[in-house]
């Protein structure tokens, strides 16, 4: 079996994840995390929370998953969050056009960055056919398909809304309140772990491309002129970097420390480099194999509509690279857009060291002239005059001044504008913060960890399938197994399991099948330790502790068991006991 087939089979059989709603024929692109998977995913989220919120001192919020349409008009998702769709003329199946090209043309790995016309040419040139029915697709039109799931908020259709395609917008729209919690002091970071929804044209590769998934996103608001990242925290961390230049010139992965990557300009944004550095230990802690891991820079055509510089963390699974995290420098794009489309201020006040005397151009339009002259447009003309005075005071140098409102020109005498240049003493200014965003896909991380940690070996002449999860990530910390289900061994084993649970550990109790099979079952779901209750337990109140990876065993007193398991989970080995 291939690694991917192996993984899906293990995930289904052992309750990590499986296709949702199978009783009703299944729903493509939706997965249910079973008991083992839900626990593993929760552990990934807890480690993330520890690294990116607690340790870095950021805030966390929980915003609604449905948001009203104006949010996505402002964010640009309504206009630009599209994929290229190609519908088969014969069977009606829909496909993602760029994926068809990537699958058919060996040297094209990222067709998403191409224009629809270029993709159409490639479909024709390579004689690409419908994967569902085999009909040629050369003459079929390629259209843009918006990936957001729409809905109506309340009855009727007067208030359209969308399931959020990224958790980030729930943070941006609350910025006016959040800055108050941050006492108007930059920099500050706000994180959110939650569901995001994308109506993917072709969901595929299990958890890799799904229609509902969990993101863990951090939006770090910074002053672009004054805030530098604490690079010294991560300066010596080694990064495996695959730059845009290396991708374009058939170059290789290069290893640089964060410091060198910044000094040599391999990573253009210091903030992005800083988060690449902070993230390395997170990937290691959750169990990603860093030999199957890289940071890849976006090619120029690949950048999102909001991103100024972007790198992805990618893991190798089944011979292909999977994007697990996007690191973007989003500049002031999001806050500026929400300020433009809403009634709120998305700025913070930057205090000067010393008050400054500055010249300000102002207007005080004569409304007794503007009203009768411009009618309903008078208010907008007054606003346009104020904006023009701030932007270009030379426009008021002649006798008349012209402003544009909704594609109409309005001209009036300068004397009716009340234009003046005043001197003022100001203690600071309002600025729009910039945003640095590490955005993690939790489902893809869980998938990568399962792929990287799954292995097989031979124990006692039999093949064993195991999941070598770091102990802190394992869904179950310890399994208690009685040697036999007679002579009171099972009763004592249940008591031992209860004692371990009472000590706060995640405990499984298993008495079905022979002891070897029970060990195999626990090995396969990644349980790092098995505790066996045998006849000596009844005599001396000791148990054996078996280690998953070495399969070695050590005898431990029952009353020392909780502290022993804790020490082992924190990194001690059986030999240290
Ligand atoms: N706020 C930025 C943002 O959403 P993105 O690169 O579109 O950026 C971030 O998404 C991460 O979310 C990706 O790196 C990936 O891990 C995950 N992700 C995106 N689309 C996904 C999908 N359809 N299925 C599973 N995970 C997905």
Describe what this molecule looks like in 3D.
The chain is globular. Helices cover 32% and strands 30% of the residues. It contains 19 helices and 28 strands. It has 577 residues and is of the alpha+beta class. It has a 9-stranded mixed β-sheet. A 5-stranded mixed β-sheet has the order 25-24-26-27-28, with helices on both faces. A 3-stranded antiparallel β-sheet has the order 4-9-8. The protein starts with a helix and ends in an 8-residue tail after the last helix. Helix 2 runs antiparallel to helix 11 and helix 2 crosses helix 15. The longest helix is centred in the N-terminal third of the chain and has 20 residues. The protein has 4 domains: 270 residues, 2-Layer Sandwich (BirA Bifunctional Protein, domain 2); 65 residues; 81 residues, Signal recognition particle alu RNA binding heterodimer, srp9/1 (2-Layer Sandwich); 101 residues, Anticodon-binding domain (Rossmann fold). The site of glycyl-adenosine-5'-phosphate has 18 residues, from strand 11, strand 16, strand 21 and helix 15.
Overall shape: it is globular
Radius of gyration: 30 Å
CATH fold descriptor of the largest domain = BirA Bifunctional Protein, domain 2
Count of individual beta strands: 28
What is the assigned CATH homologous superfamily of the largest domain?
Bira Bifunctional Protein, Domain 2
Low-confidence stretches: none
CATH architecture of the largest domain: 2-Layer Sandwich
Helix/strand class: alpha+beta
Mean pLDDT, all residues = 95
CATH class category of the largest domain: Alpha Beta
The proportion of residues forming helix, as a percent range, comes to: 25-40%
Largest sheet: 9 strands, mixed
**How many DSSP H or I helices?**
19
Question: Termini distance?
Answer: 40 Å
Number of domain units: 4
- Beta-strand residue percentage: 25-35%
Hetero groups bound?
A: glycyl-adenosine-5'-phosphate
How do the strands of the widest beta sheet line up side by side?
A: 3-10-11-21-16-15-14-12-13
